[in-house]
Amino acid sequence: MHGSGAPSPWVVRWSHLVPEGGSVLDVACGAGRHMRWFAGSGHVVTGVDRSPEAIAAASSFGRVLQADIEDGPWPFGGDQFDAVVVTNYLWRPLLHHIVAAVAPGGVLLYETFAAGNETVGKPSRPDFLLQPGELLSASAGLRVIAYEDGFLDSPARFVQRIAAVRPAGALPRHALESPPAN
Questions:
Q1: pLDDT recorded at residue 172
Q2: Do 110 and 136 touch, CB atoms closer than 8 A?
Q3: When comparing pLDDT for 68 and 173, which is higher?
Q4: Is there a contact between 101 and 26 (Cβ–Cβ < 8 Å)?
Q5: Domain that holds residue 22
Q6: Strands of the chain, DSSP E
Q7: If pLDDT is split at 50, 70 and 90, which confidence band does 2 have?
Q8: Four-residue CA torsion sign, 82, 178, 41, 60
Q9: CA 88 – CA 123 distance, rounded (Å)
C-alpha cells in the first residue's frame, strides 16, 4: 500500500524544523508513514487521503480525513499547521492551499517527482512532474532552508524537494543550523 514504508529521508532530515509538539498535516498520506514518524516524535498529526484503505491504515497514528482533494473542496479551509508534509504527490490546483496551510513559524516539507522522470520510469505524464523551479515558485513567501532539483538513484528518479519556513518575525535559530546526523 502507498505510504506504508519508511519515511522519506528528506522529511526525516528536516523534521527538526517542526516546532516541538507542533501540529503536522500529511497531504495524500497513504498508509501514514510520515504520520507515524511525527506521532512518534510527539507531534499532533492529521492525514488526508482519498483511499479508504489508506485512511484505515493511517488512523492509528492520528486524526485522519478521507477526502478527494482533487475533485472536492480543500477540506481544511483556513486551518494552518506547524508542518505540512507532501511526498510523491502533485496536484497543481492545490499548491496554493498547501502553502497557505503552513502556519507562521511552520515548515513545508515537500518532495515529489520532477521533469526528467519520464526517462527513468513512472510517473511520466507532465501533469505529475514538476517543472524546473516550480516548487520554488509555489513556495514564494516562505524562507527556503533547503532545495534540491535533480536525479536520485536507488530507485532511479528525478525529484524536486524543499524545506521552507513561513517567517514569524525572526527565523528561529535552529532553522539555520545543520540538521542532526541520521
A1: 43
A2: no
A3: 68
A4: no
A5: 9-176
A6: 23-27, 44-49, 63-66, 81-87, 102-113, 143-152, 157-165
A7: low
A8: positive
A9: 10
Give the chain's domain count.
Answer: 1
- Give the rounded distance of the alpha carbon of 10 from its chain centre: 10
Residue 182 lies in a domain: no
DSSP 8-state secondary structure symbol assigned to residue 125:
S
Q: What is the pLDDT of residue 154?
A: 83
Look at residue 3 and tell me if it is in a domain. no
Alpha helices in the chain (DSSP H): 9-14, 33-40, 52-58, 95-100, 134-138, 173-176
At position 171, the amino acid (one-letter code) is: L
Question: Is 38 inside any structural domain?
Answer: yes
Q: What is the largest distance, in Å, between two alpha-carbon atoms of the chain?
A: 43
HSE on the CB side for 37, CA within 13 Å? 25
pLDDT at 5: 85
| Residue 168 pLDDT | 86
| CA distance linking residue 100 with residue 108, whole number of Å | 10
Residue 2 lies in a domain: no
Whether the bond into 155 is cis, omega within 30 of 0: yes
**Residues 36 and 64 sit within 8 Å (Cβ to Cβ):** no
Tens of pLDDT, residues 123-161? 999 999 999 999 999 999 999 999 999 999 988 999 999
Answer for the pair 136, 147: CB distance below 8 angstroms, yes or no: yes
CATH of the domain at 152: 3.40.50.150
Full-model pTM = 0.90
